[in-house]
Write a structure and sequence with these properties.
single chain; 11 strands; about 15% helix; about 40% strand; globular
Length: about 210
Amino acid sequence: MKTPLLVALIFAGLIASACGPEGSFDDGLDDEEIGTTSSALINVDPCAMGTTANATGTLYTPGDYESYTRSAAWINSICPALGKDRKTTMVDFFVSANNSYWYGFGLQPTFIPASNATECTGQLAALRLMRRDKQTMQWVEVEYLESKGQWTLSGCRSPQIVTYSQNSFETYHTHTDVYRVRAIAKNADGTYATVFIRGFQHPPLP
């Protein structure tokens, strides 16, 4: 039987999972460029295990975007207490299989505030972008990116990651109908940070 505290934490985590964090996400785009349409995420499970994604979204038409937040409480305590201890957060983004579009994917963690250089540079964010091969139906790595915090005169610049990929039906070996973002973020003390993952259709790059 779940304790009242655990039930409250799970309820709070479900609310957090459906909403992005306050503030702007620096993806280099104006809101007008991103668009204002978003379909609801499906298959949301903060404690998904194995190769199952924590959430699924769709980016079928220009202007579509999706975002998913998995709070630190789920990663560090709630899921492990339920016997489901997977630190990596995964989101699948289904994309157009009939058009050539650019897509952007981002990771913006929420870290424990750093008060010194050691705590700042100890912050780590990592994003692995994958695509599902249409022939083998296996996941293929597109790119792996890693970033650490930078201590500046104005304080800590926490790491965040943005990357882009073109899905072209004219180039079969890079063509896919779904991207997968695998993300992880750690505080300097070794605990895991809240992750905010975003996927969006991007205007053609210059």
